[in-house]
Each structure stands twice: as structure tokens, then as C-alpha cells.
Amino acid sequence: MLLKKIFVITVLISIFIKAKCMVIINQTIETAKDKDGNELYFLPGDKLAINECLLNESWAIKSNGGKFYMRMHMDGNLVIYITKEHRFFWSTNTDNTGGKRLCMQEDGDFNIYGLENNVLWSSNTKGKYGIFVILTNCGYLEMYAEYNIKLWENKEYPAPHPKEDEDN
């Protein structure tokens, strides 16, 4: 009986994953230009789920109300911007580190990885088993576990402003 239940659950999960991929493929991708005129492609939704990553600076995630967006820059820095002005709000302060991707891990850690698969920045939530990270309409990243239990938020770990914004 237990083996049958595991098989049914596995099949349902597989169907869900395939359906989710189909939905993403069929969704319209919103585009915009950043302050330098570079094209941005907004992924559907306002969160990264387990095993999802931001891979390059052309892809971004926008908060549900659209007030903020985040993108992974080619220099390795994850930055949250105020959408209307494309103005800096928060960053991981990992510029010029060679970071190439931001991923929500199966074990609940939320990391920026370099070329050698080394961790350059982390939410330090390994083992807490978060299921997604969401960009809120207040500009914060929040990680949640099942039953909407908040595990982490970036306002507890503020990063200094990037050097380029210190003169403003």
C-alpha cells in the first residue's frame, strides 16, 4: 500500500512539473528597458521556487504590484531596483565576484554561484527547507516554507549600497 501511494504521489508530481513547464512556455513574457536602454525580460510571477535560477542580467523578476524588480548582473551582483526610476534599493554587494547565477536550492539555501560552482553569497538557510523566495511589493526578498511560514528576509541582512550609487 505504501509503495502504491509513493508511486501515485510521484506521478502526480511529475504531471504537475510538466504542466508547470507548459504554462511557463505559453505565458507572455513582459519586457522593458533599464535606465541604460538594455532589454529586460520579466519571468512570469514574483518568486523563485526550488531548483529555479536567475541566470543572466537580461532576465528579471518583478514584485506582484510591479513596484520593484530584481536582476542578476553579469558582474555577480544581485540588485533590487525601484521599477519606476530604475533606482537601486538593495544588493548582495557581490559585484566583481564572478557570480553567474542565483538559485533557490532544494535544501532551502538561496545562493549566488560563481563559475567554479562556488558559493559567493548565501541566505544561510540551508536545512530550513524553504520552498520559494518571493520579491515583495515593499522591495524585500522573503523565503517561505510550507504553510506560508516565513524563514528569512533580506532586510535582516542589509547589504551596503554599491559604489556607483555612493556619489548620488
TrEMBL record:
Residues annotated as domain Bulb-type lectin: 46-156
KW Signal (keyword) present: yes
Source superkingdom: Eukaryota
Keywords: Signal
Signal peptide residue numbers: 1-21
Keyword Signal assigned: yes
InterPro entries, per the entry: Bulb-type_lectin_dom, Bulb-type_lectin_dom_sf
SUPFAM superfamilies: alpha-D-mannose-specific plant lectins
Name this protein carries in UniProt: Bulb-type lectin domain-containing protein
